[in-house]
Amino acid sequence: MLFKIKTLIVFLVMILAIIGCTNDEKEEPLEPIAKEAEDQNNDENQPEENSKEEQSPSAAEEEPNIEVDPLPTTFKELEKLKVGVDAGPLYESGKDTQEQNKEIAEHFKDLPLPEDKANPSELELDYLFREMLKRVQLDFQGPEQIMKEIKFQSLGNPDIEDARYQFKENLNVVILLDASGSMAQVIDGKTKMAAAKDAISNFLGELPEETNVALRVYGHKGTGSDSDKELSCSSSELVYGFDSYESSSFDRALSQVKPAGWTPTGLALSDAQKDLSSYDGKKNTNIVYLVSDGIETCDTNPVESAKELYDSEITPIINVLGFDVDGEGQNHLQEIADSVDGIYQTVSDENELAKELDKVNDIAQAWEEWKDKGMESLDYQKTTNSLKIFSYVTDQSVKETDERNSMNFIVRALEEHGYISSEAKRYLLEKNKEYHAWIQSEVNQLEEELDALNESSYKEAVKALEEKYELNVE
């Protein structure tokens, strides 16, 4: 009996021991659980926006923080857009199409492509379209450019208030020719320098005999190497004039010039002011043409130099021609022209260069007629189709087609090589079609407005364009 009692006591003690151990094991997590509750309570006390970010991390992915620059809504806004770094033809004739598609896709794969290729948002595709367009943006020229053309080609018209656009006793034409190393590049089997020389020589040969002409070249010494930069950036030389054009003397002077080094455009403009210092605007109509194929590379501040020349007593008209120039160069040269209310035009070859320079010949012939009539006012009653501004309409239509095609090429290449989905391709192609259809409608409207001005006087034409596009030609 005593043995049974002892056995029962031992058994009860063991049970109690087991229960105690079990309770100890259950109490172990109490501290972490309490801490988790405390952390949760702290989270609830955090600012509301932090709470939202943590509770729905996918929200930012679904609605990316993207700001899409608006597309232009008027021609005036369109012509203000900067030329893209990849503006121009994307395909080379005679080269394998598939290989070129691969190169295009590789070149443009750094565009902001959608993160989820299979499910891109409309916002992401709109952003991709806008950034793609910036890369291939062409230099559309609309009402503001046309206003400048009307004013320049109406030079001598007494209705123009700006005295620099009135005929004076003398007509002086100065050409500033870029002779940097890049002018040695070949176009249609001819270096740009050789093409420029021929176009300029032919142009000057057509001017009235009494016209004073001058040619200054710059960047023609040294090489493009860093060791020659100081020499090249200080090279600017008046190689002909001021005098009437004489072909043998001019050709002899020009034959010594070879494309060589850097591009001190600002220096050439400053030196042109010295060249013209004896030809003040009271007795001289002064026209300066800057012909270059790229950006300033010598830190001689061409915009500031152009302004100083423009604001001087010389009161010149300063126009700029970009010869086979890239997007960066176009923007740079456009800035120079805009700073002096001048015309900027890109020319791709010798024929286009000659065509632009020929506008001065028309002005010079009118000046000669004015002189022959005893410097009496000429009859400037109508703008007429003889003004070359009307060719700009055709040029803008060509640009619309070229830009639209470039965008299509890129979109198709990106889809073909797996960077965007077929659905994204369809969306982008449709957006491109609609956008460039709008540009063409603006071009057509501009053409109608110009046709209506054919029989208008200078004042009537200017007033109509000013009111329509909120411009100021004077």
Describe this structure in words.
It is a single chain. The protein is α/β, with parallel strands linked by helices. The chain folds into two domains: 75-138 and 395-469; 162-374, von Willebrand factor, type A domain (Rossmann fold, 3-Layer(aba) Sandwich), CATH 3.40.50.410. The protein has 18 helices and eight strands. The protein has helices at 2-27, 30-44, 48-55, 58-62, 75-78, 97-108, 122-136, 143-153, 192-205, 229-232, 247-255, 265-275, 302-311, 327-339, 350-372, 391-416, 422-452, 458-469, and strands spanning 170-178, 186-187, 190-191, 212-218, 236-243, 284-292, 317-323, 344-347. The strands form two sheets. Strands 5-4-1-6-7-8 form a six-stranded mixed beta sheet, with helices on both faces. Strands 2-3 form a two-stranded antiparallel sheet. α8 runs antiparallel to α18 and α12 packs parallel to α13. The radius of gyration is 35 Å and the shape is globular. The N and C termini lie far apart (130 Å). Residues 172-360 form the VWFA domain. Residues 29-72 are annotated as: Disordered. This is VWA domain-containing protein.
